[in-house]
Amino acid sequence: MAQENVAFSHPLPNPAQNLPKALSIEDQVARLINRDFIAPTSCVQELHKWLDEQRKYKSFGLVTGPQGVGKSVALKSYLRLNGDRALRSIPLYTLYLEVFPTWGIRDICIRILELLNHGDRKGKTKNLLLRTWEALKEFGVEILIVDHADALTRQALLGLIRLSLRKQTRISLVLAGSTELESKLIRQDLDGYFEYSHSFGGLSLDEFSDVLLDHFGGKFLGLSDPTAMFDDQIMNGLCVASENRDLNQWVFYHFINVLTKVIVQSSEDQPSLCINKAVLQQVVGSYRKRDKPLPNLPGDD
User: Fold this and answer.
1) Distance CA 31, CA 14 (A)
2) How far is the C-alpha of 35 from the C-alpha of 122, rounded, in Å?
3) Quick check: 60 and 160 in contact, CB under 8 A?
């Protein structure tokens, strides 16, 4: 843990550097806390291209990666590009849903119908399956992305496979989850249904710097000169907090966790968002990042 403590070689400045106030500070803080930020990194672009291929060829596939690297954020950004239900566009092309360990195929069907705001959500499971299939066909869904799929039971996964494999209209099914997803499917004798896989990883150091300065500082925060805000001391602190030493990668989850807390705490009683290096030093020094995935909870298998 000692390596995660940052010692700055120069006196900590006071006051903090100020960020521009395009929105109210409450709105800016809400955007940070809600993680309303995505950068078109090479990992994101490669994933989107891979999803396009699965959708085109109606393939079944897996997206796996360590916790916190940004899989869910990247998948949701693909949804916004290729099937945001809020646009009320038909064909819809893409449907994304997050699932929970307690869910069976009935819960999944109900959630799909809720997302599409379509059809009766009561009745026997076999009728719900038929209604869900008809809704997917009517809305022109070509790819169904199921996030946190490693939480599902074998029966729920089988229901999803049957739903997507109907002879009349096959659609692509993509399961997303941790690095344990594939081994779980092997244990459940379901891996044979999924022909393709995609590994989603963290950022290189160069990409991390580009995301921080160009996309987060420039585009998200609207700074005219991000390097004036994110100087060498701040960059060093964020790099230490965001590095996964086991993978030699920089993890988006750590970066956004630390930076959000630093900016929000630094901006208390300030007229605009700001970064105070004393706050950065304290947050980085106390941040307990995970380089290894969390163990499965009882009942996950």
Assistant:
1) 26
2) 35
3) no
Q: What pTM does this model have?
A: 0.76
Ordered per-residue pLDDT tens for the chain, 301 residues: 333 222 222 222 333 444 444 556 667 667 766 766 777 888 899 999 999 999 999 999 999 998 777 888 889 989 877 755 554 567 888 999 999 999 999 999 999 999 988 877 788 888 999 999 999 999 999 999 999 999 999 999 999 999 998 766 789 999 999 989 999 999 999 999 999 999 998 778 888 888 888 888 888 777 788 887 788 888 888 887 777 766 666 776 777 788 888 888 888 877 777 788 888 888 887 876 554 444 444 344 3
Q: What is the C-alpha to C-alpha distance for residues 52 and 257, in angstroms, rounded to an integer?
A: 30
